[in-house]
Write a structure and sequence with these properties.
The structure is a single chain. With 237 residues, this protein is of the alpha+beta class. Helices cover 23% and strands 36% of the residues. It contains seven helices and 14 strands.
Length: 237
């Protein structure tokens, strides 16, 4: 086995792509063969597990199937084409309308998603149709010519943490944690959550905290390349 081989737990900052992190690791450690166990959107931060060298990248399919856990900040009353704050806003609700949405309704709407269901893949995603990635089709305006695929997902648990009403900015934010099967799109979950409430919603912040048995708080030695969990910033890229 190569000396530079193992699993590297990276705390990805928001604002960069998973591919950027992989390229950084290749240059930093002089290893071309590096993969990961699940992409994070540029908006998202948190746990990105890198598989360093061929000995570990050949295990990628096994790790891709592991369940995950996220901390989510959803903004109510706003809908965008990407289902997050990075996209083009398509619909908004007034603060008076949002005032009618109770915490009990929010809690019930969230927990209605626990269990197995079919989830429609978002148009802005890396899933391929007819050889093209959906986000490329969406940017070209060709997405309406295709039926978006669905996939079976399982949400194992949802914990509502808070409902924050900002009267000055006239915004409402909902924070919650969700445990889910591999392949779940949290952006789609929040979009569907907004539809259920009737006011719309999008992802404002997203942080992945767990992949399988690996947690963002882990301090164990996880790769011979580095002595402990590795934190990077945009400045180090």
């Amino acid at each position: 086995m190569s000396k530079k081989a193992g699993m590297l737990l990276v705390d990805k900052p928001s604002g960069i792509s998973s591919h950027t992190v992989v390229n950084w690791a290749r240059k930093a450690f002089g290893v071309k063969k590096i993969g990961h166990t699940g992409t994070l959107d540029p908006l998202a931060s948190g746990l990105l597990v890198l598989l360093v060298s061929r000995e570990y990248t050949k295990l990628q399919d096994t790790y891709l199937k592991q369940d995950k856990e996220y901390f989510v900040v959803a903004e109510l009353g706003v809908v965008s084409d990407t289902f997050d704050r990075m996209g083009r806003v398509e619909q908004t609700a007034t603060y008076d309308e949002l005032a009618l949405v109770t915490q009990s309704q929010i809690d019930s709407a969230l927990h209605a998603f626990v269990g197995e269901s079919l989830q429609t893949v978002p148009a802005f995603s890396a899933v391929k149709i007819a050889g093209e990635k959906l986000y490329d089709l969406a940017r070209k305006g060709n997405i309406d010519t295709f039926d978006l695929p669905t996939r079976s997902i399982t949400l194992t648990n949802i914990v509502l943490h808070s409902v924050m009403r900002d009267g000055q900015q006239k915004k409402v934010f909902v924070t919650f944690s969700v445990g889910c099967s591999s392949g779940t799109y949290v952006r789609s979950l929040v979009q569907d959550f907004g539809v259920t409430l009737g006011c719309g919603a999008l992802v404002s912040e997203l942080r992945r905290e767990r992949i399988g048995t690996f947690c963002i708080q882990d301090e164990q030695t996880i790769c011979p390349v580095v002595p402990k969990r590795f934190h990077i910033t945009k400045k180090s890229l």
